[in-house]
Write a structure and sequence with these properties.
two-stranded antiparallel ribbon; 9 helices; about 180 residues
């Protein structure tokens, strides 16, 4: 049996060790557990693209905002922020961001395409068709998504009568993937 004073001394030592910054196993600099990943460890655009694909638009917007804080408001971050706002139904905010992205990089097809999607949401079929045409030309006709968006916009623009089949057609947002190719967002 342990003497009560020894038991108390051991208990007090354990309590004090638990209250210290790391106890007896801590390294000399006071750091004994891994910290949170640094800002440079994760690309907010990649995280945001994955969240958009998963339908988590609010979280994607937060990831894109972090990317913009790290990289600045470049064409990729502007387009991504605009696309997330579009998916969240914030059309006014999305339009400003997408127009700015298209203006800053006239050869960036995803910004033009996503602006066209926004214009279709607003019912501006004529301007959307022209924007999709510009996106398609900028991409040299390489994107099936942009070509399909252009086709749908032209059919909506040229429709003289209500067609219930057209009412349910969806337009696709796109983004720049690794390299210069375009893929759905």
């Amino acid at each position: 049996m342990i003497h009560p004073r020894i038991g108390l001394a051991v208990a007090m030592t354990l309590v004090l060790a638990a209250c210290s910054s790391g106890g007896q196993l801590a390294s000399g600099d006071g750091v004994y557990a891994p910290g949170v990943a640094g800002e440079g460890d994760v690309d907010g655009l990649i995280v945001g693209h994955r969240l958009m694909a998963a339908g988590e638009y609010e979280l994607a917007l937060e990831a894109y905002t972090r990317a913009a804080a790290q990289q600045g408001l470049n064409v990729d971050t502007l387009s991504a922020l605009g696309s997330a706002n579009l998916r969240l139904g914030r059309l006014g905010q999305a339009e400003g961001l997408l127009r700015r992205a298209a203006k800053e990089a006239p050869d960036f097809a995803p910004a033009w395409n996503n602006l066209g999607v926004l214009l279709m949401e607003n019912g501006d079929f004529a301007e959307a068709a022209e924007i999709f045409r510009r996106a398609y030309a900028t991409d040299n006709g390489n994107s099936d998504q942009i070509r399909e968006n252009l086709r749908l916009a032209l059919s909506k623009r040229d429709a003289d009568i209500y067609d219930p089949v057209q009412e349910n057609q969806n337009f696709e947002l796109v983004r720049r993937s690794d390299g210069d190719s375009i893929e759905p967002l």
